[in-house]
Specification:
The protein is mostly helical. It contains 16 helices and no strands. Helix 8 packs antiparallel against helix 9. It starts with 29 loop residues before the first helix and ends in an 8-residue tail after the last helix.
Length: 361
């Protein structure tokens, strides 16, 4: 019989080890009896991305944008490495080959022989008719001239449009009225006719200056003309953005802190419109490439012997070589179409990537 005055021993669970002498038996807590709790899922850490970081991620996810970016990068490398590529081929852009070993003297005088009319191991894109100069070397150096004019004129337009548009939107009043009327005046002019009429005048004014060396005069004149008459549309877009940004709290805080107007414009306002500026710049580059080609084709831009894609198109048209040697016309025209298309596709991708309302992430 158990002693009724003896305290009941704690119930020992099955499988629990017997406490040895000198050890105190511990009771399992209710938490230990319960089913083991599942491990809480680790919360994912959200990574904050900047606007440019998010845009770059969206561009990388678009196959069309990546393909356009690759084409643009290849064209830029083609232009930058023009001397290296011409040296590897073993030709230069000025050497003429007018002998009977290269050009036809009978049926079509000046037409390259069949071996030199198309790509070959000696001349990768053949020889041009008339003077027998290497097409590949002139294409490489022509890419350098065309892209340089397009990039520099775009830079001029972007700087003028951003600064003037930001000033008009920030100051308002008479400053806004004057700048806006100048914008309207620039947008009202027929752009192509204005450029055609002013380019020869500017080139004559640049003769005898420090730019009058080599081919700098036509290049500088095109950069100035295209850049100076291309800022108005961007300025109008930037002005509209600044009109809303200047009411934001961070601008009012900078004003209350005593920051100067120049500091507010260049450190607070312009960085917040760089998305719009970047989209405009990527869309303006192919426009200026086409404009340079058109002006050189019409004879008021880059002139022979300096190569550019537009000048090569002019040479193919002026001598009617496109009838007997269409390859000479197809090479610069194809490069022009591919480059402009790639820049336009890249510009569309940048615009979509920087669009805050885009549903893509």
């Amino acid at each position: 019989m158990p002693d009724p005055h003896e305290s009941p021993s704690p119930t020992r669970h099955a499988g629990a080890p017997e406490p040895s002498e000198g050890q105190v038996a511990t009771l399992p807590s209710p938490e230990s009896e319960a089913a083991p709790t599942e491990r809480e899922p680790t919360a994912e850490i959200a990574t904050a991305r900047s606007l440019l970081g998010t845009a770059w991620l969206r561009i990388r996810r678009s196959r069309i944008a990546v393909a356009a970016l690759i084409v643009v990068a290849l064209m830029v490398l083609f232009a930058v490495l023009a001397p290296v590529l011409a040296a590897i081929e073993g030709s230069d852009l000025f050497t003429a080959r007018t002998g009977p070993d290269f050009l036809d003297d009978f049926d079509t005088p000046g037409l390259p022989l069949s071996y030199y009319r198309f790509p070959s191991g000696e001349h990768w894109l053949g020889l041009e008719p008339g003077l027998g100069r290497d097409i590949f070397a002139r294409m490489a150096y022509g890419a350098r001239i065309s892209l340089t004019i397009a990039l520099l004129s775009t830079l001029v337009s972007v700087v003028l449009g951003t600064v003037l548009g930001a000033a008009a939107g920030y100051f308002g009043g008479k400053v806004d009225m004057v700048i806006s009327r100048v914008m309207d005046l620039f947008l009202a002019f027929p752009h192509l006719l204005l450029v055609l009429s002013l380019t020869p005048i500017l080139q004559s004014r640049l003769r005898g200056t420090s730019l009058d060396s080599g081919s700098l005069v036509p290049i500088a004149s095109l950069v100035i003309i295209l850049g100076f008459f291309g800022w108005a549309y961007l300025a109008r877009v930037v002005r509209g953005q600044v009109l809303s940004i200047r009411q934001q709290e961070f601008v009012e805080a900078a004003q209350a802190y005593g920051a100067s107007h120049r500091s507010i414009i260049f450190r607070q306002i312009i960085p917040n419109v760089m998305g719009v500026v970047l989209v405009y710049a990527t869309m303006m580059i192919p426009t200026n490439i086409t404009a340079e080609a058109a002006l050189s084709f019409l004879g008021v831009g880059v002139k022979d012997p300096t190569p550019s894609w537009g000048q090569m198109l002019n040479a193919a048209q002026s001598g009617n070589w496109y009838l007997s040697d269409p390859w000479f016309l197809a090479v610069p025209a194809g490069a022009l179409v591919i480059t402009v298309l790639a820049f336009n596709l890249l510009g569309d991708a940048v615009r979509d990537a920087l669009d805050p309302k885009s549903s893509r992430s």
